[in-house]
Cutinase family protein
Amino acid sequence: MGRRRPRPAGCLLLVIAAIVIVVVVALLLWYLLAGRLRLPGPKPPGPTRPTSQPADCPDVFLLSVPGTWESNSNDDPYNPSANPASLMLNISNPIRAKFPNERVEVYTTPYVAQFSNPIAIPPDGQSSYNNSRSEGATRSTDKLAQTYKKCPLTTYVLAGFSQGAVIVGDIAAQIGAGKGPIPEDLVLGVTTIADGRRDVGDPGEATEIGPTPPGVGAEVALKGLNVPGITMTGPRGGFGKLANRTFTICAAGDLICDSPRQALNPANILGSLNILVRAAGNPVHSLYNGYQVDDNGTTATVWTVNWASGLIENAPHPAHS
């Protein structure tokens, strides 16, 4: 019996090359399908304001941005019902009930509000964080810009929770830097609850309401992590001229806003992603409606309602024509 002839080395190299090509194509498709983060660019305010505005313009505009799994792209911004348990409804509904429509327009940004786990097998079928956050940011910014264009004397209150807090905080930082969709002097105040980019202690950051956990937002702890569908953008660098009107609430142990610095190391991508995905559904993160921020038992949502109500009550009454 004759000896087997060894396979040419060239065949082995072809097989290896084919495998490498398949892996590279798969990674490229993964990134393309997951989506890139597409945040709206600067929208500097327009020309000098008039002395009056249209009769159907509200005195105050309240922007409410829900958190992950608390909205969808087709929800009604004036009667949101995508998730009846949405935390932000505990803020927007009392405000809507307290003031007439001509005094305050309450707008809840409708967006996909999802956070797909990029390492789930099989895929979980949700929209990626990048696509979700991009849609929420674009819709919120566009609505503010449209309102200012039509109603140049209206003033603004901004509030958001979780992914919505990231969106609201980003918009506030742009406004505070003079690059936002509305002028800084028209913003009465901003509050974020469980902000994933929370980074207190530095000049220009938000004022803490309630206890101050030692950690930072997950996006700050994971700065530099960029995998398909998830771009962690790190700290904002402060709120500029809005710093003295911006507040944040974070419960200790909520990994979305209270992650140990450097603990979610991008070098350990799979472990970091698992922690991040679990953080979005952790028990602490879902209990802000009962989380007390002072010794009187005031909860995070009640504090935010009282804060917003005070701003609206004392807001200017612009002339209408």
The longest strand covers residues 155-161.
